[in-house]
Amino acid sequence: MASSRPSEILFLDLSNEDLKPGTSTWIAACKDIRRAFEECGCFVAVYDKVPLEFNNDVYASVDELYNLPPEIRTQNTSNKPYHEYFGQYTTMPLYESIAIENPSLDCGNNNFVDLMWPAGNDRFRTSVHSFAKLVVELDQQVMRMILESYGIEKYYDSHLESSEYLLRFFKYRIPEMNETDVGIPAHTDKNMVSIIHQNHVGGLQVKNKDGKWVDLELSPSSFVFMAAEAIRAWSNDRIKPCEHQVIMKSKETRYSIGLFSFNRGITSVPEELIDDLHPLQFKPFNMYDYLRFHKSDEGKRVNGSIKAFCGV
């Protein structure tokens, strides 16, 4: 069920019929995910219950989105930090992304479609809503497995109640002559957990536990789970945020979709994760205050470090 490729990145089959809470298969998978997150901050979930036709329909919808005029795409704004349209940067010329807040809820999906297509677009609305619901369910399953691996599953319901999601559609165009092949430079995300799914064009690289960049070879049924800065703080520095980048080696446009989880309210380290070997490393924090700090001049001076924001 679980396997490691030569890169030592864990590949885990989440569609295994034997993967049910309380079974030996489930318990082993919980331990595998925890170890992967603690060692390099990521693993690849294989979920082959998604029909290829569904994937094709989703990415046809993403292509349709990026065929809209730029002046429409840039209407994608938000009062939350990092929840708006990104793109047209001289330092990242290949990169562009658009976001939907609360994508698994009808209200979030409908608001986005109404903004992009005032006359309506039922195909986009249906395919993206279904995709978002699927990936949110995967996120919730994996978070339950992480909590169980630490023996703190009692926090699962409160975690669900405080969770919010952002779905982001990424486009990386083909580099022009004498142009960089860096789609997005090396970084760690600032939320809790990020889940990346891509079309047939590769480019995502993650840094493994030995500090080496690894090209991820992904099937249409692959979802890359990456720990971010906020879960580093929540786990009391046990979980390592995944450093990753996109390098465009292909001569085709790369589309990917990312689901990003956030906690509203105050996030604090569970008391069970504090002991003599793991003294308290982080004070309670508000995730959106942390995102504002990351955007500030002070935050930029310390590279947006969550340790600088709420470290003990």
Tag the structure with descriptive keywords.
single chain; 312 residues; alpha+beta; 4-stranded antiparallel sheet; 10 helices; 15 strands
SSE string: EEHEHHEEHHHEEEEEEHEEEEHHH
SSE-based structural type: alpha+beta
Strand segment tally: 15
CA radius of gyration is 19 Å
Shape assignment = globular
Q: What percent strand? A: 15-25%
- Count of DSSP-assigned helices: 10
Distance between the termini: 39 Å
Mean pLDDT reading: 95
* Strand neighbour order, sheet with most strands: 1-2-3-11-8-13-6-5-4
Low-confidence stretches: none
Helicity level, as a percent range?
A: 25-40%
Most strands sheet: 9 strands, mixed
Model description:
The protein is of the alpha+beta class and about 300 residues long. Helices cover about 35% and strands about 25% of the residues. It is built from 10 helices and 15 strands. The protein has a 9-stranded mixed β-sheet with strand order 1-2-3-11-8-13-6-5-4. It has a 4-stranded antiparallel β-sheet with strand order 7-12-9-10, with no helix packed on it. Helix 1 crosses helix 5, helix 2 (about 50-65) crosses helix 5 and helix 4 (about 105-115) runs antiparallel to helix 5.
